[in-house]
Amino acid sequence: MFFVLSKLLAAFAVLSNLIGLAAGAGLVALALRRRKQGLGLLITAVVLLLIAGWLPVGSAALRILEDRFPLPEIPGEVAGIVVLGGEIDTDLSTERHTVALSSAGERLTKTAELSLVYPKARILLSGGSANLLSYEAESEAAMARDLLMRIGVPDKRIELEERSRNTCENAVESKAVARPKPGEAWLLVTSAFHMPRSVACFRAAGFPVIPYPVGYQVRRSDVRHLTSSLSMGLYLADLAAHEWVGLVAYHFSMNTELFPIAR
User: Fold this and answer.
1) What pLDDT score was predicted for residue 13?
2) 106 and 164, same structural domain?
3) 75 occurs within a structural domain
4) CA 186, 150, 105: angle at the middle one, nearest 5?
5) Do 19 and 118 share a domain, yes or no?
6) Interatomic CA distance for residues 53 and 180, integer angstroms
7) Domain for residue 73, yes or no?
8) Calpha distance 44→50 (Å, rounded)
9) How far is it, in rounded angstroms, from Cα 223 to Cα 246?
10) Distance of CA 31 to CAs 18, 37, 45, 46, 55, Å?
11) Residue 181 is part of which domain span?
12) Please, are residues 83 and 111 in contact by the beta-carbon 8 Å criterion?
């Protein structure tokens, strides 16, 4: 039930969707000759569009998330590397019969690099199907394994967790597969903006991990300038809104830390 509710909430937590809904409601109100309400909604939609699209609102919100966990000092020996899903477009991959990377593809390329640096580390790919209405014959974790094998990571080093559908399920199910021993060092690889929510879930699940953020979206200078386009500004704002709403929702529904800090 939480999975379904979280997907529905995520759709309304996207700022661009809210702007579109406000504009649509405004047009409906005008059609019903409710001029004052219609104009108010349309003006609100336009103002939000300009603010989120051109002002560095999304960049600033993402920067706070991305800076929460800096690149870590890694111990000499690493027991394993947990890689969270989201780096593969499963629908496109299924239709095109190839592994199609998403904008989070650096999660896998960095994992391939880390596998060379730590040749004894187990590699755990976490991710089932996160789609509410569609079904893939192959899990995201399995698709990720196929790609890693093609670029030279030995199959025997790769383990799959294919049951999880959201971030906190990633943590619970990964712990069940990894069975980490006390004192072992496990790296957690995911996008930098997604790291706070991920760490909150892994801590709640009792799986100690070392955050290894990848896939940065914004530079320090981005928060001081207008965005290059409305579409880019909305993209960044949508990413930020999704993560901030997710942090709050997980905190109240699953008792995770609201905004975890590095330890």
Assistant:
1) 72
2) yes
3) no
4) 60
5) no
6) 44
7) no
8) 10
9) 22
10) 20, 11, 17, 18, 32
11) 80-214
12) yes
What pLDDT shows up at residue 68?
97
Contact call for residues 142 and 132 (beta carbons, < 8 A): no
Q: Is the dihedral of CA 60, 63, 67, 69 positive or negative?
A: positive
204 and 89 in a single domain? The answer is yes
**Residue 7 token pair:** 């997907």
In this structure, how many other beta carbons lie within 10 angstroms of the beta carbon of residue 188?
28
The verdict on residue 241 lying in a domain is yes
Q: Are residues 44 and 147 both part of a single domain?
A: no
Q: How many structural domains does the chain have?
A: 2
Residue pair 108/144 in contact (Cβ under 8 Å)? The answer is yes
Residues 26, 117: one domain?
no
Write out residues in the chain with pLDDT < 70, as ranges. Answer: 1-12, 130-137
The answer on 206 and 91 residing in a single domain is: yes
Q: Are 133 and 4 in contact (CB under 8 A)?
A: no
Res 133: pLDDT: 56
Please report, as a single letter, which amino acid is at residue 122: R
Instruction: Please report, for residues 17, 42, 52, 106, 146, the alpha-carbon distance to residue 234 in angstroms, rounded to integers and kept in the order given.
Output: 10, 17, 6, 22, 33
Same domain, 203 and 106: yes
Residue matched to tokens 């993402």: 62
Please tell me the distance from the alpha carbon of residue 249 to that of residue 56, in angstroms, as a whole number.
25
Rounded to an integer, what distance in angstroms lies between the CA atom of residue 113 and that of residue 211? 16
Q: What is residue 76's predicted lDDT score, i.e. its pLDDT?
A: 85
CA distance 43 to 48: 9
Does one domain contain both 97 and 156? Answer: yes
* 53 domain residue, yes or no: yes
Q: Which residues, at least 6 apart from 60, have a Cβ–Cβ distance to it below 8 Å?
A: 223
